[in-house]
Amino acid sequence: MLYISLNQTGKAESVERLFHFVGGIAGPWTVTGTKSVIGESLRAVERLAIVGGGTDLPQGGDWVLRGVVSNERYVTHQEREALRATQAGLGREHSVLAALIPIRKSPAWWALAQDERRIIVEEQSRHIHMGMKYLPAIARRLHHCRDLGEPFDFLTWFEYAAADASAFEELVGLLRLTEEWKYVDREVDVRLIRA
Ligand code: HEM
């Protein structure tokens, strides 16, 4: 699933949106831990492959989670500019560690209006403000999957260097204490190292 996006210089380019996360015995990422934070866990697997598009999925997968990179819902113009100026892309050579954190939010969350959700995400929880402090050390990609009928609403993916592992733990710990996380009713934390 390709779409036309404007890059940072305003030029149109074709970008892959759909990603499959295949947990099984194949892929460049070795799984070092799988735990439930809340709700049902995922089956522990040996390896993870991330496949852009929908074809040629590796064989022997125990589970496949799908997500789509989408437009932002909550950032203000100013926040978006600040993020673009600081964030790093995936696939950096020194980013040998990664986390896949699939998250589902409760019916109470989805019953809220957009402006109410923004207040919880940022004015109350400081998700964007706090997260920004960990850039560019942590590279991230957010995938939406609620409208695909998947078991999670989001697949969050992070890559970082071994030297930034404790900073990442700190951020995850802080986010889990926020008002926003009171609406998380399923969360699995999968940690990986590049083979
Ligand atoms: C590394 C620093 C981080 C930054 C800069 C960051 C930034 C953001 C931003 C800007 C959004 C909103 C996108 C939009 O406008 O739609 C967002 C959404 C989200 N982030 Fe983070 N984040 C970070 C870390 C994390 C971590 C560690 C987790 C998981 C433990 C996480 C989970 C999520 C989820 C689930 C959403 C979707 C929320 C929703 O739409 O309801 N983020 N993040």
Short descriptors:
195 residues, alpha+beta, Alpha-Beta Plaits, two-stranded antiparallel sheet, 22% helix, binds protoporphyrin IX containing FE
Provide structural commentary.
This protein is of the alpha+beta class. It has a single domain (28-43, 72-194), classed as Alpha-Beta Plaits. The protein contains five helices and ten strands. It has helices spanning 77-86, 107-110, 114-124, 127-132, 165-175; strands spanning 2-6, 12-16, 18-24, 29-38, 47-52, 63-68, 97-105, 139-144, 154-160, 184-194. The strands form two sheets. The chain has an eight-stranded antiparallel β-sheet. A two-stranded antiparallel ribbon has the order 1-2. It is globular and about 45 Å long. The mean pLDDT is 94. Bound molecules: protoporphyrin IX containing FE. Protoporphyrin IX containing FE is lined by residues 72-75, 83, 101, 103, 127-128, 131-132, 134-135, 138, 140, 142, 154, 156, 171-172, 175.
Distance between the termini: 28 Å
Main sheet makeup: 8 strands, antiparallel
Low-confidence stretches: none
How many DSSP helices? 5
How are helices and strands ordered from N to C?
A: EEEEEEHEHHHEEHE
Q: What is Rg?
A: 16 Å
Please state roughly what percent of the residues sit in beta strands, choosing from under 5%, 5-15%, 15-25%, 25-35%, 35-45% or over 45%.
35-45%
CATH fold label:
Alpha-Beta Plaits
**Going across the major beta sheet, what is the strand order?**
6-3-5-4-10-7-9-8
In the CATH scheme, the class would be Alpha Beta
Structural class: alpha+beta
The residue-averaged pLDDT reads 94
Say how many strands there are.
Answer: 10
CATH architecture: 2-Layer Sandwich
Q: What small molecules does the structure contain?
A: protoporphyrin IX containing FE
